[in-house]
Design a protein that fits this description.
The chain is built from one helix and four strands. It is α+β, with helices and mostly antiparallel strands. The strands form two sheets. Strands 1-2 form a two-stranded parallel ribbon. The longest helix is centred in the middle third of the chain and has 19 residues.
């Protein structure tokens, strides 16, 4: 019963998450031999001010 945790910067659409959940589920079933019903995908949206790369908050990046 695999559980996949996906952390994304906020702003993805429900359709994008649905498509990613489908692709991750298919890949998991192919690789691990799981049934689709046994695969859980959890999405966590992270605000830009709660995410930092290279010591700089994404909310402070100009590009």
């Amino acid at each position: 019963m695999p559980t996949i945790r996906v952390e994304l910067m906020e702003g993805r659409t429900p359709e994008q998450k649905r498509d990613l959940a489908k692709a991750l589920t298919e890949a998991t079933c192919k690789t691990l031999g799981s049934s689709p019903e046994a695969v859980d995908v959890l999405f966590f949206d992270i605000k830009k001010h709660d995410w930092s790369t290279g010591g700089v908050l994404w909310s402070n990046k100009t590009s």
